[in-house]
Amino acid sequence: MDWREHYKQRLVSAEEAARVVSSGDRIYLPIYPHPTLLIRALAARRKELKGVVVICDAPMEDPGWFQPEWADSFTIVIEQILGDLGRSVLDRRIIDYIPMIFSTQFKRYESDDGDVPSIDVLMVVTSPPDDNGYCSFGGHLWNKRGFVKRARKVIAQVDETQIRTYGSNYVHVSEIDYFVEHTPPQVTDQEIDRLIESVADEEARAELKGLRPLMEPRERSEYIPHLTGLDARQIRRFATYQCWLEPAAEARTISEYVAELVRDGDTLQIGTGTPSRHLATLGTFDGKRDLGWHSEMGTPGIISLIEKGVLTGARKTLHRDVAIFSALLGASPSELDYADHNPLIEQLDSEYVANAVTAAQHDNMVSINNALSVDFSGQINSETVFGGRVMSGTGGQLDFQMGAIMSRGGRAITLLRSTAVGGAVSRIVPQLEEGTVVTIPRTFADTVITEYGVAQLLGKSIRERARELISVAHPDFRADLTKAAEKLFYP
Fold it and tell me: Ramachandran region of residue 131, left (φ > 0), alpha (ψ -120 to 50) or beta?
């Protein structure tokens, strides 16, 4: 059958597509962007369905199933990356959580004993098919091809705004069972202004008015309708994370230390959290030559560095002259336009990109990620606070940390502000609090940077590590930390 005929025959409404789901099915919603029209159509069948398990990454909205009274119909499980919404519902014990890393994500489907979890229905966003019948996953490939290969039924929400990139960012229409065409409408500037004026809280309204000119039109359309439901503090936090506002002064100081450690020709991976997310926009890599890029996602300003000729990949060991991503998360709309059909940029499957084996094959691989706390032995926690409260998952951090350590000439850099809770708590601690998750074991600890300097841990004893870390802790805590180190490590 010609692919055009297959597409035409399988083109249905969202309501028809949602009827594919039966009670007891396992539904997968891979990481961003989520097919919101399909999600709402599925949620609308709440009274008809029982025991449906929905597994998703970083949910952006609640169609109702995060409410306890929906539990008979839908069990929600978040995989790896919680996001703000997922974190709040996990705190209330309404959902379950799967900790995992991209490189081993599909190992669970390879069992020989028949105990393999099902993927009954996959719901995913794609572009329309091209002249050869291939759809793109837009700027966000991630692990979606792997899910397509393993799902019993695949439903695509077809969005005309999704870009096309090189690499393995494609799926043929013959691999998709149903298509639902839905391109989210662009919110006009006039509608944006009305939304902002409708915000009752004066401080929040003022924040949105100040942000409006700092955002590209497509950013205003995508984000402001969601931001109108937040308070002023939440709006400022999100705007700083998106790099529309300047980060805290500590981030600039940390970026200057990073700039001293990155050498011409290094291949970089950078995590999307703070403060690493701000490095490119703070000018950390300006003036560097022939940097390479191999990372599961982007951060603001990275694609602009490709356009400027700072990230050329000319000295990369693998994929020379090409910047490798699994997803372009962090890119602005104008940066996505630059990536569209650009042979300098490729998206490859996350189980390959965010993989210690792949990263280690790059000479001079430099991973730069963030932490919430670090103890004297070098144990790095990037996932929990106050003991066991989960903030997020590991993403590619563990794989890239190990890969960078094993790389010839490689280095693994961990960034964190020296304090938390408004300066009341030190992030450098003698021992991690009970219940804290260890993201990076002490055997893979390398370089730790705060706004007070650089601590080199690799190959050092626990006494030496304690001294290094105390030297970059906030001065207000150094005396107590020194006493703790003496008690823990000396006669």
Answer: alpha
Amino acid at position 5, single letter: E
Structure tokens at 479: 């005396």
Contact 384, 435 (CB under 8 A): yes
Q: pLDDT, tens digit, for every residue of 353-369? A: 999 999 999 999 999 99
DSSP 297-322: S--TTHHHHHHHTSB--TT-SSSTT-
For residue 446, the one-letter residue type is D
Q: Where are the alpha helices (DSSP H) in 323-444?
A: 333-339, 350-353, 356-360, 397-406
Identity (one letter) of the amino acid at 444?
F
Question: How many residues would you count in the chain?
Answer: 491
The C-alpha atoms of residue 105 and residue 393 are separated, in whole angstroms, by: 13
- Residue 267's closest CA among 391, 404, 382, 125? 404
Distance CA 491, CA 487 (A): 8
> pTM for this one?
0.94
Q: Which domains are delineated in the chain?
A: 3-181 (3.40.1080.10), 196-241 (no CATH), 250-489 (3.40.1080.20)
Low-confidence winner among 83-92, 115-124, 295-304, 371-380 (lowest mean pLDDT): 83-92
